[in-house]
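Example record used in the benchmark description.
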Amino acid sequence: MQAQATMCTSDPTHRLICLTAPSEPDNTQVFIISTRIFFDLNKMAAAMPIPWQHWGPSNTRILRHPFYFKIHVNGNRVLRTLPVGTRNSQFILQLFDFSPLAVTNRRGLGRVVKEPSTTYISADEFGTRGESLTTSLPYVQVVFSNRKFDCSLLRDVWIDKDRIYMLSRSLSFTDRLGVIDVQSDLQSGVVSTSL
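Model output (structure tokens):
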């Protein structure tokens, strides 16, 4: 009997905070922060400011995200849409699992990313002032590269357990809910580990 692969490796002690900040004309900077840092503090340390260098890099990952695309956080996973093609008229889905259990027990599902990444954070609208931040919160990345969707019809996207839900509007202006079973896509090879 073959063991069933599972995408969702839930870890209730590790949740995520997602902060978004506008950047450049068409992008948003998405700060994914693990909440575990806030529970590991003793009472004395919690009363004093803690510099970014002591907690930020290892507990955060910064992603660039086109502002007109969708992003959703559930537990320790982030689901986002990414534009494809020359006119950005279609998108694919990209799933990040920041659970420490997913990173250590990935079982061949997705690509583990542990390398640090550096992002320039602009302090003004022109990008003339700012600084580079390096972050290294590890994650498993799964890309649904064989599933492409029309950008203009998507209204919202979210994830719960092993299902992805997409609310879209049909050409007749009727809302429709589509469900993708992540388990089925993993077993059928619809997902890949890179863009």
